[in-house]
Amino acid sequence: MEQKTKVDARDGQQDLVITREFDLPLDLLFTAYVEPEIVEQWMGTKVLKLENKKHGGYQFETTDPKGNKHRFNGVIHDFISNSKITRTFEMENTPFAVQLEFLEFEELTSGTSKLTMHVVYKSAEHRDQILKLPFAQGINMAHNRIQEILNN
Amino acid sequence: MNLRRDVFQALADPTRRAILLLVATQSMTAGAIASNFDTARPTVSKHLQILTECELLKQTQSGREVYYHINAKKMKEVADFIEPFRQMWDERFNKLETIMKNYQSKK
């Protein structure tokens, strides 16, 4: 089966490209990025601020299973309806540097559309660190499982 | 034993990467591995211990000798480190698609 979401992250590069084709008309795909209550649903975050315009800003907040709140924010550099969003992304209170995101929205057919997300990181090392975040969690889960088995 | 040792930290060291290359094609004893390096034997032992702890190497007992060999499954997991990141986005986008299909039919 072909994967719907693709990540192209070349070795030693400080950027990556995420692409995804949707069974949605272009305007609906774009709406999912614009309407705060919809963003909240699919991103699983609370939207504290979302100014969809050039020189606008946004701030989201997530709550982890332990009840800790994590905020992330950015500045919207460019905003063209049904076409593109250029923005920065920063996780607050973490050592991770800000990243730059170029989002491009395209119509494929009247009922399908495509999103291309080009993310630029501070360095190649920094990119790989971010990529390993979900991986590291997976490893820890595997290790916790091993510990459980050993303890029983 | 430190179960939480970071596999990527283990791979960051050039000597450890050289050890993995060395045992990639054949199982070797600690002594045979150490003879390929100028570093002191205890240093090589420490590297072997780290690689074994993060499961990149496996040990097999054969008589009185312990042989080290590559854990291919683990190596593959490391090569695929982008996969969890891809899955995370895939799940988010699937959700987006479902939400917007419902949104469309409500309009």
Overall description:
Chain A: Pfam families: AHSA1. Chain A: Residues 24-150 form the Activator of Hsp90 ATPase homologue 1/2-like C-terminal domain. Chain A: This is ATPase. The complex is a heterodimer of chains A (152) and B (107). Chain A is an alpha+beta fold. Chain A folds into 2 domains: 15-120, Alpha-D-Glucose-1,6-Bisphosphate, Chain A, domain 4, CATH 3.30.530; 124-152. Chain A has 3 helices and 8 strands, in the order E-E-H-H-E-E-E-E-E-E-H. In chain A, a hairpin with a 5-residue loop joins strand 4 (56-63) and strand 5 (69-80). Chain A is globular, with a radius of gyration of 18 Å. Chain B is of the alpha+beta class and 107 residues long. Chain B has helices spanning 7-11, 14-22, 30-34, 41-53, 72-79, 83-106, and strands spanning 28-29, 57-62, 65-70. A 3-stranded antiparallel β-sheet of chain B has the order 1-3-2. The longest helix of chain B is centred in the C-terminal third of the chain and has 24 residues, at 83-106.
Quickly describe the structure:
The complex is a heterodimer of chains A (152) and B (107). Chain A has helices spanning 26-34, 36-43, 124-151; strands at 5-8, 15-22, 46-50, 56-63, 69-80, 84-91, 99-109, 112-120. Chain A has 152 residues and is α+β, with helices and mostly antiparallel strands.
